[in-house]
Amino acid sequence: MIKAILIFNNHGKPRLSKFYEHYTEDTEQQIIRETFHLVSKRDENVCNFLEGGMLIGGSDNKLIYRHYATLYFVFCVDSSESELGILDLIQVFVETLDKCFENVCELDLIFHVDKVHNILAEMVMGGMVLETNMNEIITQVDAQNKMEKSETFIFQSPRQDR
Amino acid sequence: MSPSVCLQEMIRVIRGARTQGEERGVIQRECAAIRAQFRQADSGGRSHNLAKLLYVHMLGYPAHFGQMECVRLIASSKYSEKRIGYLGAMMLLDEKQDASLLITNSIKNDLSHSSQHVQSLALCTLACMGSAEMCRDLAPEIERLLKASNSYIKKKAALCAVHIVRKIPELGEMFTPSAHSLLSEKNHGVLHGAVILITELCERNPDNLKQFRKSVPELVQIMKNLVTSGYSPEHNVAGISDPFLQVRILRLLRILGRNNDAASDAMNDLLAQVYSTSKSITTGISFPFHSIHSIYGLYTLYMVKRIGTFLLIIEFSYISMTSLQKIVQTDHTAVQRHRGTIVDCLKDQDASVKRRALELSLALVSAANIRSMMKELLLFLSTCPPELRSHAASGIFNAAERYAPSQRWHIDTILHVLVTAGGDVRDETVPNLIQLITAASELHCYTVHKLYRALISDIVQQSLVQVACWCIGEYGDLLLKGECEEITPMQVTEDDVLDALETVLQSHMSTPTSRGFALTAIMKLSTRITNNVDRIRSVVSIYGSCIDVELQQRAVEYNALFKKYDHMRYFTMSYCTVILEFGCRSRLSLVLGY
């Protein structure tokens, strides 16, 4: 199970924080700080897996991260998830963001946090991987955005069967 | 600040703040405006306000006053408002809040909404933060949706069902029939969700295993289709067709095939095929590692060989070692052949790799390789990162205890660890070592010489100091005699020994426990030596007025021994066969009558 998904920049400022288990606000901020502390110490040429964050899940907790330019994408998972699978998932997530925002950069994530949440909701649900096919995810997100734009027609649209 | 300023504008202003204090001020003003807006009933920019609040929440500022607003927005009829309301519910609400119960009804309505997107919002929220009561209420709805004709909804309903089963395991029976039928879907997302659901059901309730074993042929067929399907651009990751789904199915097959021959037989061909496919793959290789857990008997050796090759590739050494750790319990010999590479990983600069290598090395220690392994482990201990030191030290002690080829080797190893990492060992190391030394009677001379040497060179490591003091106190006469077979002895006078012990007593680096050991040792020496008894007497009487209560008590007792009970001194201070040094003290208490 995925316990949390965090995106923060090289200075530790959170750009996205999604927790799939409940923690108080203070604990959440502490987790972000602790994760940043652990991840920023890593060299460029070491593996992408970290153990040792004690706040989430204690000993059954791994941090799987990828560093893209100014951003760290960190997934906190327990032992039931495959490490390489999560690495692939991070890649799919970033590629999807790239497609949705057209050459995504940190500013896109800052100013459109809600959109990033919507995209993530199509990929991971309740701590479990939902969909990994990039095209499928983008189709759904586009349909939802269209729906938001055409608000007045919500009761008139026929039930869509896929 | 204008109340209707939108999210982007607010973010821009916050980013413009130059100090933490300025940022706090901006956010407080914004929050006050948002609060005021929430209190007014008008709809206007409600979703904007909640979006702003969620942004502020991510930065770490309190946002609990937005909870009721989430409830209101979820009940709205507009999609944009529902969307932000549900997002807010996932971020701000949890089972313990009363507000979460209020959204149960909205979720129920939305689950039957005509638009699949609204349904999916409700499903997503339920799966993320649904409490046990909410799950119980809504489980029938979810079960209905599992049979919907829309695969988008089906896949989300499947994961929602997993969440419900986690919260209330008894409801698992409700989903078992639908889970079966989901396996005949074509859509990968639905299959993925179905496999996760079945895995969860099997893990929660072993009775389900029997039922789902009937699905093994279906699962095998799906895997075969994936493995042989060739190039499928949609789900392709680095040459493998939907590795995520393959990994999930392999994991499920492992659970179903455990301890069941019929099921394992059905899987054998498939696993052979997976193995041979994996031979030609160099990237995106998560599923070969998962397949080893599904393999029984003769495949293990092949798979371990395979993993061994991955071990040599730097990027995969971590994963390889994690997988080997899982096998080493059951198949020790297969993993032994990679011992050399694993031991080399101890020297890797990556802390995660070092940690894995340490675990695996400790698991691989055996009677045959103990000497060479211990050399490597001791080398590792001297250079390892601080967070691993105590684990390494205790691992080394366990290994030494189980496989020590000789008592002398054992004592040498423990001393080595104490010198290198004495600050990180557990408390019971000192009495354990003392017990070991007592038991090895022919090595007393050797041990006391070695410890004396260690003591005069360095008194920082407290556990070493304590053991050394005890030993010198017990076997001081052997030290002074100056003969030893196993080691070239130093010529030591009584003054030298007393100097060393007094240094420990007076040093600011010594803990109270170490001082206690040193004082007792000095006292014991009064019966072993001949010339300097007066010196000992004066030292002991000085500490009769020491600030440390424990030390003072000891000194007073020893003083009493000198003065009133001199005839008992030899009895109480003679050789101990008891483990701990305060075995002497209990005899003392007996003598002095308390």
Overall geometric form of chain B: elongated
Please bin the fraction of helical residues of chain A. Answer: 40-55%
Which structural class fits the helix and strand makeup of chain A?
alpha+beta
- Terminal Cα separation of chain B, in Å? 79 Å
Which spans of chain A of ≥5 residues are poorly predicted at pLDDT below 50? 152-162
**How many domain regions of chain A?**
1
- The dominant shape of chain A is globular
Supply the CATH architecture of chain A.
Answer: 2-Layer Sandwich
Oligomer: heterodimer
User: In what range is the share of β-strand residues of chain A?
Assistant: 15-25%
The two chains with the largest interface, and their residue counts, are:
A-B, 54 and 72 residues
CATH fold name of chain A: Beta-Lactamase
Average pLDDT reading of chain A: 85
Helix content of chain B: over 70%
| Secondary structure tally: strands of chain A | 7
Strand order of the largest sheet of chain A: 2-1-5-4-3
Please count the helical segments of chain B. 33
Question: What does the average pLDDT of chain B come to?
Answer: 81
- What is the spatial order of strands in the main beta sheet of chain B? 1-2
Describe the overall structure.
Chain A: This is AP complex subunit sigma. The complex is a heterodimer of chains A (162) and B (594). Chain A has 162 residues and is α+β, with helices and mostly antiparallel strands. Chain A has a single domain, classed as Beta-Lactamase (2-Layer Sandwich). In chain A, 41% of the residues lie in helices and 22% in strands. Chain A is built from five helices and seven strands, in the order E-E-H-E-E-E-H-H-H-E-E-H. Chain A has helices spanning 25-40, 83-101, 106-111, 113-121, 134-149; strands at residues 2-9, 14-19, 49-51, 62-68, 71-77, 124-125, 128-129. In chain A, strand 1 (2-9) and strand 2 form a beta hairpin. In chain A, helix 2 (83-101) packs across helix 5. The radius of gyration of chain A is 17 Å and the shape is globular. In chain B, 72% of the residues lie in helices and 1% in strands. Chain B has helices at 7-16, 20-39, 46-59, 67-74, 79-92, 99-111, 116-129, 132-145, 151-167, 172-182, 188-204, 207-213, 216-228, 243-257, 261-278, 286-293, 299-311, 317-328, 332-336, 339-345, 351-364, 370-383, 386-403, 407-421, 429-439, 444-457, 462-481, 494-506, 512-528, 533-542, 549-563, 566-572, 582-592; strands spanning 236-237, 240-241. Chain B is elongated and about 100 Å long. In chain B, strand 1 and strand 2 (240-241) form a beta hairpin. The interface between A and B is large, with 54 and 72 residues.
